[in-house]
Amino acid sequence: MSDQIYREQFMEIFKSNANFGQMDSPTVTADQVNPICGDKMTLQLKIENNKVVDAKFTGVACAVSKTSASIITDEIKGKSLDDLKKLTEQDMLALIKFDLTLSRQQCALLCYHALKKALENYDKK
Amino acid sequence: MLDVQKIKADFPILGRRVNEHDLVYLDNAATTQKPLQVLNAVDDYYKTCNANVHRGSHTLADEATSLYEKSRETVARFLGAQKSEEIIFVRNTTEAINLVAYAYAQKHLQTGDEILLGIWEHHSNLVPWQQVCLKTGARLVYMYPTKEGLFDFNAYKAKLNKRTKLVAATQASNVLGTIFPVTEIVSEAKKFGAVTVIDGAQSTPHMSVNVKSMGCDFFAFSGHKMLAPMGIGALYVKLDMLDKLDPFMTGGAMILEVDEQNATWENPPYKFEAGTPNVSGAVGLARAIQYLQEIGMGNIRNHEIEVTKYALEFFNKARIAAPALNILGPIDPTQRTGLISFYYNGLHPHDVSAILDQQGVAIRSGFHCAMPLHLKLGIGPTCRASWYLYNDKKDIDALMEGVLEASRLLL
């Protein structure tokens, strides 16, 4: 159950605001809306030699969305685009680790869906 | 005073545990829990006399029809309608208002006409009117609340004119909690010949309603917000309006005769009840009404005012310590129903409701199907706690503890 969220480890990442903010001249940008609550996240990636070298996010979102986005953006730095395209929702939830109810899983996956969109946008370039 | 402990004992679900805490259910504006009396009435119906109504000539069909029509009479008396044929059974308030939009408004409105409504309307009393406008060329004209969240009567009078063909007004806001002066709203609208549609979803469960003294043309409510099962509600249509409505849906049960190319309609209310109706739901609704009336709508209202007063006192105190905490709606508990919407600057309502849920307290967070109101107020989603006859000050204490815990954790 949701009993395990908002504990020490989660709060530490949440309050760190890791990767929250904007970067100068990103290679690609994507917006993603959570259809359940209308929260919106913007993800920016800097891509060099088919690798993500930097990732940042902004948006009005809940603590679960923001904390998960910090974890996900940390994880994808240095990864090749081919590897990132293989990532599934389950991989992301396993990475985030927090015990989430079904509705909160959508919050946690907001950044992942933005990532999918960003990779599609990059391919279309 | 209500005997809340005795009432609570009628609701099996209120005895359950959530996240290792006793459940504190404060999401009654979304839906209410059901007492044993209602659950048993539905159960008995299926165990003893289930059959399709208004057709078949066997004993069960007769008994089911009689129960269904008695339920209609119960609803008619509860709302103060003149006749039971003024009551059309529907699934919920949304369906009731769509019925008016499709069966009446699309037929009678045209380009240049105006529909006057509040920015605080629930989407169910707003989106159907947008659709009517798209199809007829009429336009929506909005009323805005005063700073205190009250009805601005002068602004309303200024916006009424001979182009106003329909006034859609909620009797109580599901976000602000404000109780609106619908009788006065209706009588002003009548001066311009405008038809009135009252959304009673948030008022009917909590106070005495009388459609006759209100004078409205249409009045809609949902059963599930007043102890009845989901999937049953009613639309009141004033007697002299009934013949101005086309059928909403067509098919079985609503016809007199059908040949290869044409059909003729049954008399109201059957003309508006196509297909097999929700008989068990209607039986459950009638039992819920009986349950509420035995306690007394006036007693329920007074109880809710007491609980609201207690909750408002907490929020007002908490705001001194935490200025980031804001509440919506009037400060006077007698001008509102039993709910309070609130938000913290810098704190997402989903996180607040999740922290409350960890303590067994169920509240709602989001836009509460009233996005235009939130946009107008310039705020994001909010938290909403809403109580009913089975909630007491102890439940509010649990709410307060959770709200303070959320601010300690996240701010």
Give a quick rundown of the structure:
By secondary structure, chain A is α+β, with helices and mostly antiparallel strands.
How would you characterize the overall build of this protein?
The complex is a heterodimer of chains A (125) and B (411). Chain A contains six helices and three strands. Chain A has helices at residues 8-16, 63-76, 81-85, 89-96, 102-108, 110-124; strands at 28-33, 40-48, 51-60. In chain A, strand 2 (40-48) and strand 3 form a beta hairpin. With 411 residues, chain B is α/β, with parallel strands linked by helices. Chain B folds into two domains: 4-27 and 296-410, Alpha-Beta Complex (Aspartate Aminotransferase, domain 1), CATH 3.90.1150.10; 49-294, 3-Layer(aba) Sandwich (Aspartate Aminotransferase, domain 2), CATH 3.40.640. Chain B is built from 13 helices and 17 strands. In chain B, strands 4-10-9-8-7-5-6 form a seven-stranded mixed sheet, with helices on both faces. In chain B, strand 7 (164-170), helix 7 and strand 8 form a beta-alpha-beta unit. In chain B, helix 2 (36-48) packs antiparallel against helix 9 and helix 11 packs across helix 13 (393-410). Chain B starts with a helix and ends with a helix. Classes of the chains: A alpha+beta (125), B alpha/beta (411). Chains A and B meet through loops of A and helix 11 of B.
Write the topology of this structure.
The complex is a heterodimer of chains A (125) and B (411).
Chain A: H1 8-16, E1 28-33, E2 40-48, E3 51-60, H2 63-76, H3 81-85, H4 89-96, H5 102-108, H6 110-124
Antiparallel strand pairs in A: 1-2, 2-3
Chain B: H1 4-8, E1 17-18, E2 21-22, E3 24-25, H2 36-48, H3 59-79, E4 87-90, H4 93-108, E5 114-118, H5 127-136, E6 139-143, H6 153-159, E7 164-170, H7 182-191, E8 195-199, H8 211-214, E9 218-222, E10 233-237, E11 255-258, E12 263-265, H9 279-295, H10 297-321, E13 325-327, E14 339-344, H11 349-358, E15 361-362, E16 364-366, H12 371-377, E17 382-386, H13 393-410
Helix pairs in contact in B: 2-9, 3-9, 4-5, 10-13, 11-13
